[in-house]
Each structure stands twice: as structure tokens, then as C-alpha cells.
Amino acid sequence: MNFLNWLQNTPVAIFVAETLWAYPLLETMHTLGMAMLLGSLGLINLRVLGYKRALPIIGTRDLLPVAWIGFSINAFSGLMLFTSDAVNFFSSNTFRVKITLIVIAGINAAILSRKLYTSGGDDAALVALPGVKGLAASSLVFWVVAVICGRIYAYYPYYSY
Predict the structure, then answer these.
(1) pLDDT digits (tens, 9 = 90+) for 2-15
(2) What is the number of domains present in the chain?
(3) Residue 161 falls inside a structural domain
(4) Which of 68, 45, 65, 66 is CA-nearest to residue 55?
């Protein structure tokens, strides 16, 4: 907890916590980054699960840079938001579940990407790869539950378990 106390007392954290516009601007960035990340990965996952069959799976590879930009925006804005009240954020089980799910979802996305985009073959062969549909479905669940945890914490920070 000493590190967290130090972190939330840094000039950047105080700026985020006490400046009228910093926290809302970072929240807005976080929302836009989330839209880019989850919109891109969500479309890839839904395509693997059979949605929009006219879209070639290999074509969804072009969405990965958008997902990475969204993730980068979220990593930056989330870290800045975290610094503003690090002790309370970290003491929330809901927040820790959110972070854990983000890590798991990221690993899941990396595995799915490796399977889809390095295997070659047509769409039917890619969808038939072992575990691909399970990875896509679980990815959607991990990301959606992480977002839900973030919203729970935002509105009930002291009641989050």
C-alpha cells in the first residue's frame, strides 16, 4: 500500500484528481479507446462465430491495428485514472477482477490471432481449427464482463466486492 499511497500523491495523480477537466477527459478517452478495442475484437470474434459470413476472416486482420490503438489509449487513460485514487481502486475486488479479465482477454486475443492469421486456408478451415470458436466466444465474455466490472466500480466504488 505504500507504493499506492505514493502513486496517488504524485503530481500527475493530483492533477488528474483535482483538475476540473482532466478526469472527464481521461474518462472520455477511455470510452473511445474501449469502443475501438472492443468494436474491432468483437467483430473478429463474431465473424469467427458465424456472423457476417460474407466478410473473409483473413480480412478481419486489418482490424488489429485499430484494436491495438484502442488498447493503447485505454492503457494510458486507465493508468492515469488509476493514479488519481490508487488505494481505493486497488482495494476493490471488482476492480481487481476487471484487471484480471483484461489480462486473460488479452492473452485469449493473442492466441486467437495467432491461430487465425498464421494458419492460412479458407474461412471454413480457419473456423474448423481446434478451439477457435471457444476462444472467440470466451473473448466476448471476458471483455463484456470486464466492462461490466468497470461500470460497477464507477457507480458503486465502496460497495464493490
Answers:
(1) 999 999 999 999 99
(2) 1
(3) no
(4) 45
